[in-house]
Amino acid sequence: MTYSIAQAAERSGLSIDTLRYYERIGLVQPPARDSGGRRNYSEEDLGWLEFLTKLRTTGMPIRMMREYAQARHRGPHTTNRRKQILVEHRTSVLERIAELQSCLGVLNHKITNYEQCVVENDERLNLHQEASA
To answer: Which phi and psi (to 5°) does residue 110 adopt?
Structure first.
């Protein structure tokens, strides 16, 4: 099954402009074209776009994505380099996750403090209302 650029954009969650940009900078090999010259994306193309989206979501710089894509295009003899790129990126992702976990801990602590403040304020308000009655 093949998909038009609009369908590929919809299925991938990327804009048509992003698909064209990815093609222009070499992240995506030019897809097949129909007799009218329109792009036809395959399931394999969509799988690759999904992978690229994961790399971007995890913060991989475009420059590294391009290196990975170029290595992939050169073939199986680049397997070690592709693995190395992903291992290095995984290290960055794990560091970012640890940083976010630390930030989440601070947020949770502050929220717990505010919840306690709300309870204490409610108790004071109730005591004040009882004393006024």
So the answer is: -65, -40
Residue 68 domain-assigned?
no
State the DSSP H helix or E strand holding residue 32, giving kind and residue range, or none if neither. strand 32-33
- pTM of the complete model: 0.80
Residues 57-111: pLDDT tens digits? 999 999 999 999 999 999 999 999 999 999 999 999 999 999 999 999 999 999 9
Q: DSSP string covering 71-124, please?
A: HHHH-GGGHHHHHHHHHHHHHHHHHHHHHHHHHHHHHHHHHHHHHHHHHHHHHH
Helix (H) or strand (E) holding 57: helix 43-57
Q: Which residue, among 77, 81, 72, 91, has the nearest Cα to 28 in the 3D structure?
A: 72
Please check whether residues 3 and 51 belong to one and the same domain: yes
Domain count, the chain: 2
Residues spanned by the domain of 111: 75-133
